[in-house]
């Protein structure tokens, strides 16, 4: 029989041990809640978008200035009033011109460059379509495929882009070495102009495979005259028109899906880091779900964002849902709101708040959207220098992944639409002089801040107030050991503005990340700051969120951040 004293002592020791363990467990801090807008790695990068042919001519030897015969493709001016010009032809921009200016782009604080499609386009100017008038859109008579969106062979690089020892793979390698990811613009909805030519031109309305074999041909017929039953080469296309005279690819045909999946997997293999998808809303969500699944089967997590050129949010969200491939979008509704606010002095910051859709919105995840205020398919932002500065201050601190169209850093061709100069040649001289522009100077400052501030890249966005000329909001990131609270104060008035923020404000040492001085905030304290005219202040608190009203609102934002049908995408 065991010694009862020894037994009692053992039980007592065990009990004391359990009590000690229990006390230690009770005293241990709970893991902080997860507060994060998106975990998508690509969200770290702001995007600089170039129409490659119109950026910089780095290699004149690939200009092909005499290409096209009777229908030449180089330098086809369109004249407007007061000596203004646009252009329908190639102007020489190429991979080398982009790569040689990678330092310029990276130096502004961008982490990625979005380039227009790289695939082979027709070798002549188009003879069909409507005549181009100053400022007209979807008028293609006499235009070349300088922009890249008129693909005929999606497996081959257009001859105007590469140089000796600089093919696409070498270009992406060079961009990566410069610290920049490459976003490749891709088209699946259509090929080149396909009908209305007085006499059928070679390559137009045709698609070739990787071996150069003709696999689709509209034969200069309007879509309603196609007969895919009798003519196999017409089965690639739908028998109804879409945009202008462009061929309209049949998203119900499995051969169409396979052709493009294989083509774009090839370009990922040569270094593309992300895709921007043209005319996404012209094809079915079922097609996009299949396309995304095929890409992600080989490259899990590969980032793709689409252009659904629509400002009606009821039409947009489905492209971000699981049923549509769980992809991202260009944020057209927020673009519209930004133009209303930043093109017009004395406008109301509150216009932007509703367009953010931070809770129960149409998107699977609003934080994954690519945000912008203009691009090549619309009029450039028609704002003053201060309007551009205010727009960039908002764009680089609010939710989403910001994208800037080339030249916006100096207000290039502001207010100009297609065939008015929207896509005019930028050139090395403007790049070399860009640092003198106040728009550039302020853009660089705010873009570099985002680049070094995780909360601005992927944190939840909590609005304190947006009204009149003032906006105050928090960006909060609490995920995988990172905890950062950013307080953003924006002033778009012509005078300095005083801010007093108390709501959601947590006690602690707030570091001045952009202007001003560090501020120590006591419990239930108020942060007072003066923000210069058309300026921004950003304060950072590297701490776990503990302020009760702040935690409550962040918890609600996490719960309501995505549309229920979207199956929330991180």
UniProtKB/TrEMBL annotation:
<dbReference type="InterPro" id="IPR006311">
    <property type="entry name" value="TAT_signal"/>
</dbReference>
<protein>
    <recommendedName>
        <fullName>Alpha-amylase</fullName>
        <ecNumber>3.2.1.1</ecNumber>
    </recommendedName>
</protein>
<feature type="signal peptide">
    <location>
        <begin position="1"/>
        <end position="26"/>
    </location>
</feature>
<dbReference type="InterPro" id="IPR006047">
    <property type="entry name" value="GH13_cat_dom"/>
</dbReference>
<dbReference type="Pfam" id="PF00128">
    <property type="entry name" value="Alpha-amylase"/>
</dbReference>
<keyword id="KW-0378">Hydrolase</keyword>
<keyword id="KW-0732">Signal</keyword>
<dbReference type="InterPro" id="IPR006046">
    <property type="entry name" value="Alpha_amylase"/>
</dbReference>
<keyword id="KW-0326">Glycosidase</keyword>
<dbReference type="GO" id="GO:0016740">
    <property type="term" value="F:transferase activity"/>
</dbReference>
<keyword id="KW-0119">Carbohydrate metabolism</keyword>
<dbReference type="GO" id="GO:0046872">
    <property type="term" value="F:metal ion binding"/>
</dbReference>
<dbReference type="GO" id="GO:0004556">
    <property type="term" value="F:alpha-amylase activity"/>
</dbReference>
<feature type="domain" description="Glycosyl hydrolase family 13 catalytic">
    <location>
        <begin position="49"/>
        <end position="450"/>
    </location>
</feature>
<dbReference type="InterPro" id="IPR017853">
    <property type="entry name" value="GH"/>
</dbReference>
<keyword id="KW-0808">Transferase</keyword>
<dbReference type="GO" id="GO:0005975">
    <property type="term" value="P:carbohydrate metabolic process"/>
</dbReference>
<dbReference type="InterPro" id="IPR013780">
    <property type="entry name" value="Glyco_hydro_b"/>
</dbReference>
<comment type="similarity">
    <text>Belongs to the glycosyl hydrolase 13 family.</text>
</comment>
<keyword id="KW-0479">Metal-binding</keyword>
């Amino acid at each position: 029989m065991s010694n009862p004293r020894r037994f009692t002592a053992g039980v007592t020791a065990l009990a004391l041990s359990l009590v000690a363990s229990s006390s230690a467990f009770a005293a241990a801090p709970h893991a902080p809640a997860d507060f994060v807008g998106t975990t998508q790695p690509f969200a770290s990068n702001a995007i600089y978008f170039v129409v490659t042919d119109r950026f910089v001519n780095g290699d004149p030897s690939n200009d092909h200035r005499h290409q096209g015969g009777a229908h030449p493709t180089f330098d086809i001016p369109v004249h407007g009033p007061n000596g203004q010009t646009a252009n329908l032809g190639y102007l020489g921009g190429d991979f080398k011109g982009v790569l040689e200016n990678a330092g310029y782009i990276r130096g502004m604080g961008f982490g990625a460059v979005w380039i227009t499609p790289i695939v082979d386009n027709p070798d002549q100017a188009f003879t069909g379509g409507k005549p181009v008038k100053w400022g007209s859109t979807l008028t293609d008579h006499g235009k070349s495929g300088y922009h890249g969106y008129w693909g005929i062979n999606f497996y081959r690089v257009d001859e105007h882009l590469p140089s000796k020892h600089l093919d696409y793979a070498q270009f992406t390698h060079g961009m990566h070495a410069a610290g920049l990811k490459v976003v490749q613009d891709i088209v699946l909805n259509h090929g080149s102009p396909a009908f209305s030519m007085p006499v059928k031109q070679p390559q137009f309305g045709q698609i070739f495979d990787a071996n150069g074999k003709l696999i689709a041909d509209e034969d200069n017929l309007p879509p309603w005259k196609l007969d895919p039953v009798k003519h196999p080469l017409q089965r690639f296309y739908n028998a109804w028109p879409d945009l202008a005279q462009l061929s309209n690819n049949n998203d119900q045909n499995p051969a169409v899906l396979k052709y493009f999946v294989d083509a774009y997997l090839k370009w990922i293999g040569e270094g593309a880091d992300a895709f921007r998808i043209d005319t996404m809303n012209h094809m079915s969500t079922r097609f996009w779900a299949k396309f995304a699944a095929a890409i992600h089967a080989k490259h899990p997590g590969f980032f793709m964002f689409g252009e659904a050129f629509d400002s009606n949010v009821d039409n947009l969200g489905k492209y971000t849902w699981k049923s549509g491939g769980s992809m991202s979008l260009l944020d057209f509704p927020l673009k519209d709101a930004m133009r209303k606010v930043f093109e017009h002095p004395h406008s109301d910051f509150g216009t932007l708040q509703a367009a953010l859709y931070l809770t129960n919105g149409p998107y699977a995840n609003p934080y994954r959207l690519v945000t912008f205020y203009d691009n090549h398919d619309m009029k450039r932002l028609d704002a003053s220098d201060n309007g551009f500065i205010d727009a960039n201050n908002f764009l680089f601190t609010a939710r989403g992944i910001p994208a800037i169209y080339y030249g916006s850093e100096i207000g290039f061709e502001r207010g100009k639409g297609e065939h008015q100069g929207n896509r005019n040649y930028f050139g090395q001289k403007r790049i070399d002089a860009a640092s003198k522009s106040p728009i550039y100077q302020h853009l660089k400052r705010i873009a570099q801040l985002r680049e070094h501030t995780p909360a601005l890249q992927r944190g939840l966005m909590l609005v304190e107030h947006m009204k009149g000329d003032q906006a105050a909001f928090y960006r909060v990131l609490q995920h995988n050991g990172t905890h950062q609270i950013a307080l953003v104060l924006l002033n778009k008035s012509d005078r300095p503005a005083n801010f007093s923020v108390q709501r959601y404000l947590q006690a602690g040492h707030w570091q001045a990340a952009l202007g001003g001085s560090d501020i120590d905030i006591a419990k239930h304290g108020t942060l007072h700051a003066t923000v210069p005219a058309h300026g921004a202040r950003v304060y950072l608190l590297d701490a776990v969120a503990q302020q009760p009203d702040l935690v409550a609102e962040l918890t609600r934002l996490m719960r309501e951040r995505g549309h229920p049908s979207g199956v929330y995408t991180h």
